Automatic annotation (TrEMBL):
GO molecular function, one term: phosphatidylinositol binding
Leader sequence segment: none
Pfam families, per database record: PXA
Record domain PXA: where: 38-223
Name this polypeptide is given: PXA domain-containing protein
SMART domains assigned: PXA
Length: 451
């Protein structure tokens, strides 16, 4: 189903109305505009967008006009190509190292600290006199410390207003200039982004069981990769007939790879910042989450001192920057990773590559079902943390601390409004980096699309 031949046949079928006589004998890339600079990503996008357009747009449009389907499809493809190329051009200018390993963890660290403070205040005099249930107290106190413009405890309309303004801003910056005055195009894209994408992301991912399942899925991937490496290692050992020096050769090969990975950049992406990776917020976040300062106070001071020294060292900054750069563009944001994400999204939304998946998602309806979801994913996290028993014992000292920390981490996602604060913070972070204009334009500019 995910083979290149199958994908080509699917795309040709989906875009069959684009004058088949004129494109006879042409490949897909020759009669469809490039969406990105990667042909592999383009094929996955053609399939996903083609399925969406055929399911939701053309089926509706055929009821209004029977002889202009080709014109509409051509226009949609052209606008989509402009939007995706615009997005890629903007994304290529970003420093993803700072976004993924610094800014992102500032948000997560603030969430973690706020959750701990609020949990400690429940049922104490710092909480004030209140007849509210503990859950309501937690949410209200959390929003007092870590608030987002879109979220208020008793004002759900505010989120919808913020979402509308948020999407209008993005659409105004994404659309081709010649399409800005087209109400039909603007309203279509606003509805697409607001109702199908943003609303679904915020409403679905803000459920606690969805975030727990997301953590569990990441753990499943780690466990599968670990198992695959173990099997490959055993096969290599069983088939190894080259002699006793193979282990030494393998060690030197690994050292060579490590040296190359830290001293060279294997991508065409420009390194856009001289900020030391040792100053990124991921390190305070990990220290805070693992309670390193509490468990190893002296070692924490020593490591903090070493970190300050490394920040001032240009050599170590250069090595860390190269390693981070290669990790981001060769692993996290590689063509294969992005292709896989788009393919998985297509398989979820259109399982049979024809109709949209309307099957209701599983939603726990009782406390027992919710607890089962939490416990199942908790076990996966504990299993991942115990892949290296020695490291786990060092970081947590004992299994009790490990279990308590995992429970506290999962509990921080218990409440939907709290999770919405995190998600909106992450969306703001992502899109204000991609569209820095959002930081300076006013609502009047956006409404009049004077951007």
């Amino acid at each position: 189903k995910d083979s290149e031949q199958y994908l080509r046949r699917l795309v040709q079928k989906l875009f069959n109305s684009l004058d088949p006589h004129d494109r006879k004998g042409l490949s897909v890339q020759e009669y469809l505009p490039a969406f990105t600079s990667s042909s592999k990503i383009d094929m996955e996008l053609y399939a996903l967008i083609g399925l969406f357009v055929n399911q939701f747009v053309l089926s509706w449009y055929k009821r209004l006009a029977t002889d202009e389907e080709e014109e509409l499809l051509n226009e949609l493809v052209a606008v989509t190509a402009h939007i995706t190329r615009n997005m890629q051009e903007r994304c290529n200018k970003l420093n993803w190292g700072e976004i993924l390993f610094d800014d992102l963890f500032i948000i997560m660290n603030r969430h973690l600290e706020t959750s701990r403070i609020v949990s400690a205040q429940i049922d104490t005099r710092f909480n004030g006199e209140s007849d509210d249930h503990d859950d309501i107290e937690f949410i209200k106190n959390y929003l007092k410390i870590n608030k987002h413009f879109a979220i208020e405890f008793d004002n759900p309309k505010l989120e919808r207003q913020y979402s509308n303004l948020f999407v209008k801003s993005i659409v105004s910056l994404l659309m081709p200039m010649e399409e800005l005055d087209s109400k039909l195009s603007r309203h279509f894209l606003i509805a697409l982004f607001n109702d199908l994408i943003i609303k679904n992301v915020i409403e679905n991912l803000s459920d606690n069981f969805m975030l727990w399942n997301l953590c569990g899925s990441i753990c499943d991937s780690i466990l599968r990769n670990n198992e695959a490496r173990s099997v490959a290692k055993k096969d290599t050992e069983n088939n190894n007939t080259k002699g006793k020096y193979d282990g030494v050769v393998s060690i030197f090969r690994s050292i060579g790879h490590m040296i190359a990975y830290t001293t060279s950049v294997f991508t065409s992406q420009k390194q856009s910042s001289d900020t030391s990776a040792f100053s990124y917020a991921i390190f305070p976040f990990l220290s805070n989450m693992l309670q390193f300062r509490k468990r190893y106070p002296i070692l924490h001071v020593e490591l903090s001192f070493v970190g300050q020294v490394l920040i001032k060292s240009q050599r170590f900054t250069h090595l860390a920057s190269n390693t981070l750069h290669n990790l981001i563009y060769n692993v996290i944001l590689s063509d294969s990773t992005i292709t896989s994400l788009i393919r998985n999204l297509r398989n979820i939304l259109f399982p049979d590559d024809t109709t949209f998946n309307t099957a209701p998602r599983f939603v726990p309806t009782t406390e027992e079902e919710l607890r089962e979801v939490k416990d199942r994913n908790r076990e996966k996290i504990v299993k991942v943390l115990n892949l290296k028993p020695g490291i786990a014992r060092f970081l947590f000292k004992n299994s009790t601390n490990l279990n308590d920390d995992v429970d506290a981490f999962l509990m921080s996602f218990d409440y939907k409004l709290v999770n919405k604060v995190i998600l909106w913070d992450l969306l703001d972070l992502l899109f204000t980096n991609i569209f820095p204009e959002l930081l300076v334009y006013t609502p009047t500019d956006i409404i009049s699309h004077n951007i």
